[in-house]
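User: Reviewer 2 asked us to show a designed sequence for the structure in our supplementary figure. I'm pasting the structure tokens here. Could you produce the per-position amino acids so we can include them in the response letter?
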């Protein structure tokens, strides 16, 4: 990144990068967010940042999720979390989703850490990092004396091994593809040369996909070795589809956890998870059903932790398949959907309308204004697409909430002359179907990370996350320019142009960012909240009473 004088610093780049990110985010919120939070601009960066601060202040006043245990309070040795989704692997290169990322953040460490409170990058396994060629080459200096769970000391060769192992893996191949070479300069120095300059690379080094493995552990035991990390928790035992048990790692460089064991329990049914929390079988209930939030709030033995979520629920058109390849039809749908009513019903009011296809806390956010609900405009575009009428559209969905959304869209579009058919699939089925391009349209979701190039996942042609199968050379060129641009003003403009492109051609319709909730035993704290819902429970504590 650039300093105020435009120079690229060779050392301690992470502080400049983080400061530049926050400056740009704040500038974008001032320039681009002109609507009030109560109406059409509820997902703006300015509004969301303010709301997050407000929530933090309220949490401090009410005692929700304190960062450290109160003095003199006895804490539980054994903590249990009830999860909606199950673990299927202990290898961080084979899964990158909410339930697995909980575990990766506790068991493993990454080169760099992102501080959710200060919004700055901080040292983790790397104490410092630098680039002197605009983000093409990075030098990482590793922390001394870090121990893996198998007793081995972290070395630069472990980092080299980790990145080379990423090739062809489910979760990390995309990261591997960005690296031209990685080498150990000495035992505590790693040199990474990227295929293309990437000023977001330090931010990508904070994600669980960058978890560093022990070369010895994986080589000696390819099945269980990937579960060996340097984090404050180590894997004790597991039964996929049932539970995963962690135990405290006494030699963690991060310090000892506040409990002795932490167990993930798979409880897919919302009501069963809440009952387990109420009767003390679990201490944490992830993703409580919105209809049951009041139950948690009214229970004197429980706390309800809320936060502004960074996961976007969106509508995607398969732009490679009829009839969704017709831009006028896409615009008719965009103007024919009443998003405010969808939030009120499907999300039970716990969501913020999205006005740009971008994360509200993502670098480069620009408020495009969103699509106004206008049956007249919808009919106008529909007449261009289908002058003789007869418009039909299939929507693929999975899950109760998205079924409700689809049913509401079905009713709303009927009023403008579009017949909607709903195709229900399970979570695995819709993932496969939309990746293969078998759908006409779908309702899906994505959690946006803090760095701008994260949007590449959902806009890059050929990406499994690109559910619209949208191909725009203009967008790809802008992404390539932005990620290598050291001038903040130009970089912000590139990201604005990308968002305007998507807004104009409508491969996606952003719907809303859902608020996040966690039900916990009263007095529970130490949870590091991430807007993506991939929280860090490393420092969690639960009072005995």
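Assistant: Here is a per-position design you can include in the supplement:
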């Amino acid at each position: 990144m650039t300093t105020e004088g435009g120079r690229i610093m060779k050392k301690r780049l992470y502080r400049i990068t983080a400061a530049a990110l926050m400056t740009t985010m704040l500038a974008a919120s001032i320039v681009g967010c002109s609507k009030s939070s109560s109406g059409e601009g509820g997902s703006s960066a300015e509004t969301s940042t303010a709301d997050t601060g407000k929530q933090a202040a309220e949490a401090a006043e009410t005692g929700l999720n304190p960062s450290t245990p109160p003095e003199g309070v006895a804490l539980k040795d054994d903590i249990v979390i009830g999860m909606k989704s199950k673990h299927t692997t202990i290898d961080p290169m084979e899964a990158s989703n909410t339930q697995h990322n909980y575990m990766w953040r506790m068991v493993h460490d990454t080169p760099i850490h992102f501080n959710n409170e200060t919004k700055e990058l901080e040292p983790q396994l790397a104490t410092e990092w630098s680039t002197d060629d605009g983000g093409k080459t990075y030098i990482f200096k590793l922390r001394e004396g870090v121990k893996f769970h198998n007793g081995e000391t972290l070395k630069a060769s472990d980092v080299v091994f980790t990145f080379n192992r990423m090739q062809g893996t489910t979760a990390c191949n995309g990261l591997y593809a960005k690296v031209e070479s990685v080498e150990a300069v000495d035992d505590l120095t790693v040199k990474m040369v990227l295929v293309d300059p990437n000023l977001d690379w330090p931010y990508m080094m904070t994600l669980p996909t960058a978890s560093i493995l022990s070369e010895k552990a994986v080589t000696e035991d390819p099945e269980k070795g990937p579960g060996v990390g340097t984090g404050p928790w180590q894997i004790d035992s597991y039964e996929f589809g049932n539970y995963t048990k962690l135990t405290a790692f006494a030699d963690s460089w991060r310090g000892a956890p506040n409990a002795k064991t932490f167990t993930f329990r798979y409880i897919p049914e919302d009501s069963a998870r809440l009952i387990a929390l109420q009767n003390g079988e679990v201490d944490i209930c992830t993703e409580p059903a919105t209809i049951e939030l009041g139950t948690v709030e009214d229970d004197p033995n429980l706390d309800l932790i809320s936060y502004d979520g960074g996961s976007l629920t969106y509508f995607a058109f398969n732009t490679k398949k009829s009839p969704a390849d017709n831009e006028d039809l896409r615009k008719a749908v965009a103007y024919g959907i009443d998003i405010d009513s969808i939030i009120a019903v499907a999300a039970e009011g716990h969501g913020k309308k999205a006005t740009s296809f971008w994360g509200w806390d993502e670098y480069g956010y620009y408020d495009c204004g969103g699509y106004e609900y206008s049956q007249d405009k919808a009919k106008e575009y529909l007449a261009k697409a289908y002058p003789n009428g007869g418009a039909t559209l299939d929507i693929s969905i999975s899950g109760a909430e998205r079924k409700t959304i689809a049913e509401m869209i079905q009713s709303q579009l009927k009023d403008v002359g579009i017949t909607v058919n709903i195709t229900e699939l399970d979570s695995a089925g819709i993932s496969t179907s939309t990746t293969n391009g078998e759908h006409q349209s779908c309702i899906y979701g994505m959690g946006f990370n803090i760095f701008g190039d994260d949007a590449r996942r959902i806009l890059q042609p050929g990406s499994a996350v690109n559910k619209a199968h949208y191909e725009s050379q203009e967008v790809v060129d802008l992404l390539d320019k932005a990620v290598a641009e050291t001038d903040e003003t130009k970089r912000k403009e590139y990201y604005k142009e990308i968002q305007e492109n998507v807004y104009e051609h409508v491969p996606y319709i952003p719907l809303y960012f859902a608020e996040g909730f966690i039900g916990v035993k009263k007095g529970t704290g130490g949870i590091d909240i991430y807007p993506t819902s991939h929280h860090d429970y490393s420092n969690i504590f639960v009072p005995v009473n």
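For the response letter, you might also mention the following. The two ends are 49 Å apart (CA to CA). Confidence is low (pLDDT under 50) at residues 1-60.
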